[in-house]
Specification:
Elements lengths: L1 E8 L2 E12 L2 E11 L1 H9 L5 E6 L1 H13 L1 H8 L10 H14 L4 H9 L3 H4 L9 H8 L4 H19 L5 E10 L26 E9 L5 E8 L4 H20 L6 E3 L7 H9 L3 E6 L5 H4 L7 E2 L8 E10 L2 E10 H34 L8 H11 L5 H4 E7 L5 E7 L1 H10 L3 E6 L6 H9 L2 H10 L15 H27 L6 H9 L2 E7 L9 E6 L4 H10 L11
Parallel strand pairs: 5-8, 8-9
Antiparallel strand pairs: 1-2, 2-3, 4-16, 5-6, 6-7, 9-15, 10-11, 11-12, 12-15, 13-14, 16-17
Helix pairs in contact: 2-4, 2-18, 2-19, 3-4, 3-8, 4-18, 5-7, 8-18, 9-10
């Protein structure tokens, strides 16, 4: 049973509620609750109901802020871009707020103040409403130039590697693009350009983004923003020197780094740059450019380790590519073969149906003429549209002729032999090349497959719920670069947070992790200030949490943030 205990401290009485039990045959205090002075106990008893209840998002804001604090984000930015006056928020605070917003609830700068007011971030980074207007954000963004962004990212990457112990043996490089709503007739910005949108928005101007990501935790260590109409190979060449410098700095002189990239970055210049850098490489070749390798039969291939690479075979050789002799690996993947074959069979069936429907339509037109008869040109254009798609022109032949009545007629056929050749040579195969002559086939294939880390990073940045890169509410190159910086910074924070949880045995996807964290809310009960006190009494509790959320709270030590008193 609990009992009330009085203690005299500095001549004043203070009271505690405690419970004593026998443990091992001896009396022991099992728990204690501090109640305070007599006056404080009376104040609590006389005012049992809170004046107000404040509820705010807690979990994701507190967890992401802790990672940002470990990276020393605000201090690094402020070292490179000092603030102008003592009564204003620093540039580091503004960009940190923007990055945390991208982590938790991405919105425009005009709405960022409202998000701040409903988030636990307001207790971690104090700011007034007048400091959080969109104009103040833009003014501070405008102070950061491209050189400063590179220097800031270099320090942040160094902290991420040194303080979180990232493994740099395998790094992934790739590029993507994001559509914008920059006016097509605005000639000022050079980054947004018309090009092939990977999100299918070719009607909009796009901005390119290249990332260097670790296979250990999907953590971005380098980014580059470039014009949307620039090819990937040109992008790689333009950043090769900076990549080499970044890798050399992060690895501390260690040269056992393997850079993995896809065939879009291939060129003689890029491979020469990779050879001069402090890293090895694994890449892929365009299969159709090497028919002799595609012709290698399965019986000459070696089955790889079924534990790590089930249903994968490889044929190893040497060949001169891009001016140097390299180790070549032609691989066959049975699940990939099955998926490609299934996809092509579906596309073949669609073309069969459409071509036959077009042929029958032309027959009906000749039998029952109408005022709008098809022409030879329109029919050929229709056939061209039907046979769009990879391999379709190889698998089908179609001829549009003029019949005796002057109307077009269609003759077509499917080439079964071409289909069999395609199945035996191309489907399921990938051609890899590397300068890691000392690696086994399994190591080369696993390194190339690690590309899913950078592809996963891009998927996160295109998710509309968290970490989203778009839409970009900016229209100058300088602000677009700053926008890209804090979006990549947000990705770094979330990736490091996810990696930390994984090491604690809590394995979640970035979206699932952030969803569970944002569902953890702080409920603050605010009691009126007693006559002798200047500030109100605040008691904080967390909302109801499930088992996974409880494990996350314990692993990250988030409960300590509940002591914050600012409301």
């Amino acid at each position: 049973m609990a009992s009330l205990t009085k203690k005299i401290v500095n001549g004043k009485p203070y009271y505690y509620l405690r419970e004593c039990q026998r443990v091992g045959g001896k009396p022991k205090i099992v728990w204690t609750l501090y109640l305070g002075s007599v006056e404080r106990m009376v104040e609590r008893l006389m005012c049992p109901d809170p004046k107000e209840i404040d509820i705010c998002e807690f979990g994701a804001s507190a967890a992401c802020f802790d990672v940002a604090a470990a990276l020393d984000v605000a201090a690094i930015i402020d070292r490179h871009v000092p603030k102008r006056s003592s009564d204003s928020l620093s540039v580091g605070s503004y960009l940190l707020l923007a990055a945390l917003n991208r982590c938790v609830a991405p919105c425009s700068k005009a709405r960022l103040g409202a998000w701040y007011a409903s988030s636990f971030v307001r207790r971690l980074i104090p700011a007034s409403p007048s400091q959080l207007t969109s104009q103040r954000f833009w003014d501070n963004m405008n102070r950061v130039d491209e050189a400063q962004l590179r220097a800031i990212e270099r320090e942040l990457s160094h902290n991420a590697v040194s303080r979180f112990g990232l493994d740099l043996r395998c790094l992934l490089f790739d590029a993507t693009n994001f559509f914008t709503f920059v006016d097509s007739f605005n000639p000022a910005p050079k980054l947004p350009q018309r090009g092939h949108s990977k999100e299918g928005r070719d009607n909009l101007r796009i901005v390119g983004l290249a990332l260097l990501v670790t296979s250990d935790g999907d953590v971005p260590l380098f980014h580059h923003t470039y014009p949307g109409n620039q090819p990937d190979s040109v992008t790689f060449q333009s950043v090769a020197d900076e990549l080499a410098l970044r890798c050399r700095d992060l690895a501390g002189g260690v040269s056992d780094i393997t850079l993995v990239f896809d065939k879009g970055n291939n060129s003689a210049e890029n491979l020469a740059s990779a050879g001069r850098g402090p890293f090895h490489f694994v890449g892929s070749l365009v299969p159709t450019q090497h028919p002799e390798l595609l012709a290698v039969p399965r019986r000459k291939m070696r089955r790889l380790d079924p534990e790590t690479l089930p249903a994968v075979w490889s044929y190893r050789t040497r060949k001169k590519v891009f001016g140097c002799e390299r180790t070549i690996l032609c691989t066959f993947n049975q699940p990939l073969f099955d998926a490609q074959q299934k996809t092509l069979r579906r596309e073949i069936a669609k073309r069969n149906e459409k071509l036959e429907a077009l042929r029958l339509s032309l027959v009906r037109q000749r039998a029952h003429p109408t005022p709008n008869q098809p022409t030879l040109a329109s029919t050929r254009k229709n056939v061209e549209s039907i046979l769009k798609g990879r391999h379709m022109k190889t698998l089908f032949s179609a001829e549009v002729i003029v019949a005796t009545d002057g109307l077009p007629a269609l003759r077509w056929e499917f080439h079964q032999r071409a289909w069999e050749t395609l199945r035996q040579t191309l489907l399921g195969k990938t051609i890899l090349f590397t300068d890691r002559d000392d690696w086994t086939d399994e190591q080369i294939v696993l390194a190339y497959r690690a590309q899913y880390h950078v592809e996963g990073a891009f998927r996160c940045m295109k998710d509309p719920r968290f970490l989203t890169f778009r839409p970009m509410f900016h229209w100058t190159d300088q602000k677009l670069r700053v926008h890209a910086f804090y979006c990549v910074l947000a990705l770094m924070i979330v990736s490091l947070l996810r990696r930390k949880l994984a090491h604690a045995g809590i394995c979640l996807s970035p979206v699932d992790m952030l969803r569970r964290l944002t569902d953890i809310r702080q409920i603050a009960l605010v009691y009126p200030a007693p006559p002798a006190a200047k500030t109100p009494f605040v008691r904080s509790k967390l909302s109801r949490t499930d088992d996974v959320q409880n494990k996350i709270i314990d692993a990250l030590g988030l409960i300590r943030h509940l002591d914050a008193q600012a409301v």
